[in-house]
Amino acid sequence: MRTFDYKPARSIDEALALLAEYGDEAEFIAGGTSLVLMMQQGLVQPGVVIGLGAVPELRGIKRSADGGLEVGAMTTHRVLETSPEAFAFAAALPKALGVIATIRVRNQATLGGNLVHADPAQDPPPVLIALDASVDVVSAGDAARLIPMESFFTDYFETSLGDNELVRSVKVPPMPAGSKLAYKKFLPRTEDDYATVSVAVRLGIDDAGTCTDLRIGLGALGVTPLRAKAVESALLGQRLTESVVRDAAALVRDEVDPLDDVRGSAKYKREMARVWTERVILQLGGIGVPA
Ligand SMILES: Cc1cc2nc3c(=O)[nH]c(=O)nc-3n(C[C@H](O)[C@H](O)[C@H](O)COP(=O)(O)OP(=O)(O)OC[C@H]3O[C@@H](n4cnc5c(N)ncnc54)[C@H](O)[C@@H]3O)c2cc1C
Predict the structure, then answer these.
(1) Separation of 173 CA from ligand 1 center, angstroms?
(2) Angle, CA of 104, 106 and 109, to the nearest 5°
(3) pLDDT digits (tens, 9 = 90+) for 139-186
(4) In what order do the strands lie in the sheet with 48-51?
């Protein structure tokens, strides 16, 4: 591994000042679970590593005044997994964090690091896409912008984060009244694996059985996490029955572009996308037992 200088920051301003000073030479380090592996493999070779571990403003989980949720970028997966605030918001959110790798990884790795690492098979992104969350990003001079989760990921391990920017938090808007959330990570190999495919659904159905809210996030089904917009459009405003959901879920096959890898062929993953999209919607909506 290339020798590097370690510069711990104590505030967001200091982290951004160090980034401005060292430019392309610098990388932030959060939990280090991905960055250190990338450095060991020579894929990233920073001369300066800026530590975010002692920046208190980047930690914490709080409910916002409008009933939403705000999660600091340096919040570890384990803290979010066990957060009473997150459980009160939507139990499926902390549960989704609880299926990441092992407790050892979850104790170390952070939400901000996960998003910036941008592996398309990671678990938080599809859930946060389904929740219509945004990435709260800051740069020097207190400039800030909110990037919708679904446009944060631009390519394989690539994001729209600028060279001078830091992820400060993730902002999740309140759930629409009556809507529910579910996440399925399909793991046919081992329990601590990355997803073969994953599906997150936020669903609302009124008393007449009509779909009033639907957002679907997908993991491991393309070079970035995805949103299944065609399935959403086909079901929104419809009375949901098993056959209506089955027909709409089949549309997901044309929305995904999975890669062949050790977890399965692209053909298999495309089919699993259909199967799990259908099942998660049916189960969450209480619409009968899937075939
Ligand atoms: C063995 C193993 C198994 C795993 N399995 C899973 C899994 O099943 N599901 C899953 O979702 N994830 C999995 N992960 C990934 C893990 O969840 C971490 O989220 C991810 O590795 C990075 O988090 P980190 O905090 O360690 O970030 P780091 O490794 O410290 O950083 C990653 C990248 O983010 C940048 N960065 C970090 N914080 C910020 C910030 N605030 N602003 C701007 N840039 C920032 C860094 O510069 C670096 O480029 C696994 C990781 C390992 C090592």
Answers:
(1) 24
(2) 110
(3) 998 899 999 999 999 999 999 999 999 999 999 999 999 999 999 999
(4) 5-8, 48-51, 26-29
Nearest Cα neighbor of 270 from 285, 286, 250 is: 250
Q: Is 33 in the pocket of ligand 1 (CB under 6 A)?
A: yes
Start-end of CATH 3.30.390.50 domains in the chain: 180-285
- Which residue intervals of the chain bear CATH 3.30.43.10? 5-51
Contact 44, 67 (CB under 8 A): no
Give, for ligand 1, the residue of 11, 14, 28 to mutate: max count of ligand atoms closer than 8 Å to Cβ: 28
Q: What is the pLDDT of residues 46-73, one digit of tens each?
A: 999 999 999 999 999 999 999 999 999 9
- Torsion angles phi and psi, residue 218, rounded to 5: -125, 140
Domain range 180-285, CATH architecture: 2-Layer Sandwich (3.30)
Task: Among 14, 29, 99, name the best residue to mutate to test ligand 1's pocket (greatest count of ligand atoms within 8 A of Cβ).
Answer: 29
Residue pair 93/127 in contact by the 8 Å Cβ criterion? yes
CB-ligand 1 contact for 26 (6 Å cutoff): no
- Look up the pTM and report it: 0.97
Q: Does domain 56-172 have CATH number 3.40.50.360?
A: no
Find the farthest-apart pair of alpha carbons in the chain and give their distance in angstroms, rounded: 64
Query: Does residue 136's CB lie within 6 angstroms of at least one atom of ligand 1?
Result: no
What is the distance, to the nearest Å, from the Cα of residue 235 to the centroid of all Cα atoms in its chain?
23
> For residue 137, what are the CA distances in angstroms to 72, 73, 95, 150, 249?
11, 10, 25, 15, 34
| Whether the CB of 19 sits within 6 Å of ligand 1 | no
